[in-house]
């Protein structure tokens, strides 16, 4: 698949891989031959946050040649999709996620072609049928493996592939698959494809899956998060991929403070105001901060889109 840039006028119809005809969802029998091999690739240091962060940072900065290809992957999910839209876009692929709980999602990968490079390569993948953040995170693993396989053909000096993700749920799901023999409530067809790809890659080079703490300044994780967020369908084509904007608990999130009662006759005659004076000031400050944050977010997104190469399905 050749790289191409997604433009705003691109037709917002994402192509999804069709499941095999008359094929049901994968069962444990499909995973059994692969579960142990894939679980052996996961390396988690329970409770050792500092070590995990330091190790990930080591592979985020330019370093001496070490024959390691470090891939950082991430997923992104939108607010909830209107149930009617989710149902209309459901297609023919089986999914256990209820229409009212579905979200637009995407995955992203960040890596450096050479260990001494300063420039990041970003790849973002819009996904119309991922529907949840965990599926987006899982898709990120598959995309990272596919890119790693491509790099192995271009660089014969690569001996190890390290994949970093901030999704502990996906890593633990893969790690505990052989012992629990219970399939998670994810996209099982996608999980099977990712497991197969990981095992296949591990037959060629040493592969390790590591956890990286999220939102703690590790550059590789920051870049992967940026690539995933900018590739989300609702950000690329907001009119074609709408999200819910109403919020039943809005008062709890915008700083609403109930009006305080007063004993003055004038105030009693007029009735209590919607907000007290301190609350009005607080809300005004929140609105101003929100405008600044939205502006900075748009600038960051535009910069990321200009630097990232997106690959569609």
From TrEMBL:
InterPro entries: RNaseH-like_sf (IPR012337), RNaseH_domain (IPR002156), RNaseH_sf (IPR036397). This is RNase H type-1 domain-containing protein. One of its GO terms (molecular function) is nucleic acid binding. Residues 65-233 form the RNase H type-1 domain. Signal peptide: none annotated. The lineage of its organism: Eukaryota, Fungi, Dikarya, Ascomycota, Pezizomycotina. Residues 277-296 have a biased composition (Basic and acidic residues). Gene3D superfamilies: Ribonuclease H-like superfamily/Ribonuclease H. Residues 261-296 are annotated as: Disordered. Residues 261-270 have a biased composition (Low complexity). It comes from Diplodia seriata. SUPFAM superfamilies: Ribonuclease H-like.
